[in-house]
Amino acid sequence: MPKTKFSLFAALSLLCLTSTSLHASPQDINGLYVNTFGDSAQQALLFVHGGPGDESSIFEATDAQNLANQGYFVVVYDQRGQGRSDFSAGQTAYNYGTYSADLLSIIQTLQLKNVALLAHSHGGAIAAHFDQSYPGVTKKIILIDAPVNLWQIFIDMKANCTALYEKTSDTAGINKLNQTFDMILASATPSQEVETFFGISTQCGGPGGLYTAPHAASSAKGLYTTWMAAYQSSVLPALLAAPQEADPVKGFLEREQYIHFDFSQTIQSSSSQYYGIYGDEDGLFTPNTLASIEKLLGAKHGATSFELIHGASHNVFVDQQEAFNRALLKMLKE
Description:
By secondary structure, the chain is α/β, with parallel strands linked by helices. 48% of the residues lie in helices and 12% in strands.
């Protein structure tokens, strides 16, 4: 069954009970779950979560209010058909065009001022498509652990997982990794293969796989606990476990060849400023790829456009929150 307005508003009510959301204002915008923090008269920071198939709760529960306290109007939302947002009729709505239009709808409905997109992971590709479709609407796009060349991360993940498997002489793991990678190459619409590949990336080398940060800040454990408590007290687990009338992830992967999307040219030609904040322990990237992203951003905006945070994996705003916020605030004030 598709999600209903009842389940959406149930999620809104439960999230208001968490300590991290005491100053939040959740609402429904065209079927999208949207939550805001802070004073709407201030500069807006619009968080674009990753995926496909993810939602915004981890940033919402751990850092949204902190940034609002610094004088920003922080907006989080769940993309169409994901998390607490409603499903659309059929799978054809799940594409970059719809996702970009949804972003514009949020910006216009909330009348956001001087909006900066905080684009996490696959949210970077969505932000770039938005920038292409609606140039000039946002002046700054902060890439957070976001692949620029999507296919490159599959190459990097394969290399990083292989290295972890080799440490434990896990031949079966290497074989499954190689087989799945070859299946992605062979398929015209590799939706299931991509999901399987990302599943492997969370397990190679142990629990968490490529997403673990051995040198995370001491505060990170408490932040993850805060997020998990908020997550489990909401209806998100039930929503994500419920049967889906239209699978948004499958619909998206079958309609967008996103694994071959490279938005480096968009960065070079855009009138918007692009910045990047990445974790040096993020297993989705090799050091060479991170260096190439730094070079790309730096060629347009200089050395201050990129920050590599030590001791952080894919959720840099949790693993090293203090360092992340310091870097972000510096970029926003440029």
